[in-house]
Design a protein that fits this description.
Shape: globular
Largest sheet: 5 strands, mixed, barrel
Number of domains: 2
Order of helices and strands: EEHEEEEHHHHHH
Helix content: 25-40%
Strand content: 15-25%
Strand order of the largest sheet: 1-3-4-5-6
Number of strands: 6
CATH architecture of the largest domain: Roll
Structural class: alpha+beta
CATH topology of the largest domain: Archaeosine Trna-guanine Transglycosylase, Chain: A, domain 4
Number of helices: 7
Distance between the termini: 30 Å
CATH superfamily of the largest domain: LON domain-like
């Protein structure tokens, strides 16, 4: 997608403890009526949806929670309707955005005015000077955690992917907190994101995860 094709107003899909990065694809199961409407409308226009984390605050309105300022614009690249009227979609991350303002409308889902001023580099396919051996060292503890939980990571297969795909996929699948995942999403570039993941991991011991479930 080119800069001049980017929208200024997008539908917003708030998902707690869930992030999507540019150049990364995720499957989503849509069943709530307002988001069925959102996907329906999006499929009729530009197929674009904004994924953003809600802030979980005390006494917050759970139907319309406050949002973080930074999210990621995704494009629906696969769509299927099930017999029980759910939508199964695949969303590909394009570029991060900043929320400027929420727009009031008669739609059941939320819409926001946004800009992309700090994130145009997300649209560039650039080579990153990182070695996969360094990546494996940084994710050693995360790899052990995944395997302890029954998630076997095929590191040989990951070597064939781009570093963007590898680092972002592991960040998305990690059992980090909502706030920690937001830090990773807002990291300026891949190098910073890699460092932030290492910093977050260094604050954990495996005992911290004992009562948590992988997202």
């Amino acid at each position: 997608m080119k800069k001049d094709e980017l929208p200024k107003l997008i539908p917003i899909f708030p998902l707690s403890n869930f992030i999507i990065f540019p150049k990364t694809s995720v499957p989503l199961n849509i069943f709530e009526p307002r988001y069925l409407e959102m996907v329906n409308d999006s499929m009729k226009s530009n197929k674009l949806i904004g994924i953003i984390q809600p802030k979980i605050l005390k006494n917050d309105d759970t139907f319309s929670p406050n949002l973080y300022k930074i999210g990621c614009l995704g494009k629906i690249i696969n769509f299927k309707e099930t017999e029980d009227k759910r939508f199964l979609i695949e969303l590909k991350g394009l570029i991060r955005f900043k929320v400027l303002d929420e727009v009031k409308s008669n739609k059941t889902y939320r819409e926001c005015k946004i800009n992309f001023d700090n994130f145009y580099d997300d649209l560039i396919d650039s080579k990153v000077d990182l070695k996969f051996s360094d990546l494996e060292l940084i994710f050693r503890d995360l790899k052990s955690l995944f395997e302890k939980r029954g998630f076997i990571i095929n590191w040989k297969a990951l070597e064939k992917q781009s570093l963007d795909e590898t680092i972002n996929a592991l960040a998305m699948a990690s059992p980090f907190t909502l706030e920690e995942k937001q830090v990773l999403l807002e990291a300026k570039n891949l190098e910073v994101r890699k460092t932030k993941i290492a910093e977050i991991l260094s604050t954990y011991t495996f005992d911290n995860y004992d009562n948590n479930t992988l997202q």
